[in-house]
Task: inverse folding
């Protein structure tokens, strides 16, 4: 079968039909972003191997508002990716799956209500939990940078 | 009645050029008019070359699935005014090869459906073909699978799935939900081979829980839930935990004096239409598990 009708990677992003589909797209985007950050971070810290002067000049180059905002985005992406990842593990392995029942008309409303509540509650609990730890570390980092 | 005009932008596939072109039609819309009604109106009044697939017009046959404003939709069930838009963009279903205009090819979709063995598998094949007794099933057992048995194979879930967008070998939400429907059926005895089919990267592990399938399903089948439950069963099996119970035994044979009244019907009458006997024989071969 030819691949003419298939959306390809674009199909990861469209169509956004529901909240979980949006979370799926964001999970992919943040995942790619965090992987890129990892390589940049390894490159940045490897500057230490080139001597004290190089490391200080690299640190000075990175110490500006653009990179601070970038770092904040990385922290937010990590919070989201972590919380959503835990939700996915719980849901994907069927650990918080409801029992199947006979669908009641209108079917779409029935699904949406059941699932959106579950996703919202799980994400809120996990998001707040992960955010407390991640933001605490971020604030400590900013304090260290400030000194 | 006040009449509103809605622009139908049809993204039509041309098999001769292998590309798409967009045609615009102005359609007068009345209250209760569906997207399919609009397409029929265009074909009858504006352009007879427009191709689309439809049959029952009441959400039962699953033929008229199309992408409306970027969302896989059953057009016979979707009222134009409920969309609250002055323009509708209609395309063939995503993730299927387009045939012509708005018609998509379901070849791969039904191939996947056949791959999961969508029928009751029994060890006692003779009893299945020439039944002497009923299979027992209580309402609780029926409740476990009825949600997944409501599928009308419209292909909307397959079209909304991001995994099918990149992996053409992926079985897809419809096939996996159907697999679970038979797996959990208390009359089925093929659970081991069903789990083996599902337990692969092109099976349940290909799903990333975007749940677009459940969102667009017009019958409330919830394929995402079926995939979650299948994963739980596979996990339990791999951890050595108990999975699905054994199939229930058949209903006890009645003593001859209390024999079921249904048996009193006797033999079927002779065929009266020419060719019907051959057709019946072909049907029996297709549906006889001894000949599969």
Result:
């Amino acid at each position: 079968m030819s691949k003419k009708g298939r959306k390809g990677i674009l199909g990861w992003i469209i169509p956004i039909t529901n909240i979980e589909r949006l979370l799926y797209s964001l999970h992919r985007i943040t995942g790619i972003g965090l992987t890129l950050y990892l390589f940049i971070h390894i490159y940045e810290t490897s500057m230490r191997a080139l001597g004290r002067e190089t490391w200080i000049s690299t640190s000075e180059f990175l110490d500006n508002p653009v990179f601070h905002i970038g770092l904040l985005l990385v922290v937010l992406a990590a919070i989201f990716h972590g919380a959503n990842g835990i939700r996915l593990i719980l849901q994907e392995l069927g650990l918080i799956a409801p029992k199947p029942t006979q669908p009641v008309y209108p079917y779409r409303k029935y699904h949406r209500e059941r699932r959106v509540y579950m996703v919202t509650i799980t994400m809120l609990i996990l998001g707040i939990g992960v955010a407390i730890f991640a933001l605490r570390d971020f604030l400590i980092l900013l304090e260290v940078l400030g000194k | 009645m006040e009449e509103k005009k809605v622009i139908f932008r049809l993204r039509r596939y041309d098999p001769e050029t292998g590309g798409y072109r967009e045609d615009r039609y102005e359609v007068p819309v009345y209250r209760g008019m569906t997207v399919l009604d609009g397409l029929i109106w265009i074909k009858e009044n504006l352009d007879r070359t427009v191709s689309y697939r439809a049959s029952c017009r009441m959400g039962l046959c699953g033929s008229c699935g199309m992408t409306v404003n970027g969302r896989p939709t059953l057009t016979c069930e979707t009222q134009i005014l409920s969309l609250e838009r002055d323009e509708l963009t209609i395309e063939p279903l995503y993730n299927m090869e387009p045939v012509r205009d708005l018609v998509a090819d379901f070849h791969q979709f039904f191939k996947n459906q056949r791959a999961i063995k969508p029928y009751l598998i029994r060890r006692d094949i003779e009893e299945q073909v020439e039944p002497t007794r009923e299979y027992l099933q209580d309402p609780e057992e029926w409740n476990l699978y009825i949600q997944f048995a409501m599928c009308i194979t419209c292909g909307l879930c397959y079209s909304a799935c991001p995994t099918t967008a990149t992996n053409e070998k992926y079985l897809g939400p419809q096939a996996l939900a159907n697999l679970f429907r038979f797996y959990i059926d208390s009359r089925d005895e093929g659970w081991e081979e069903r789990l083996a089919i599902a337990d692969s990267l092109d099976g349940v592990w290909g799903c990333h829980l975007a749940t677009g399938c459940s969102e667009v399903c017009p019958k409330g089948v919830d394929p995402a839930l079926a995939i979650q439950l299948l994963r739980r069963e596979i996990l339990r099996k791999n951890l050595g935990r108990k999975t699905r119970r054994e199939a229930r035994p058949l209903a006890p044979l009645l003593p001859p004096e209390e024999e079921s009244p249904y048996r009193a019907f006797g033999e079927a009458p002779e065929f009266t239409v020419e060719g019907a006997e051959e057709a019946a024989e072909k049907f029996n071969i297709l549906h006889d598990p001894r000949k599969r």
About this structure: Chain B has a mean pLDDT of 89.
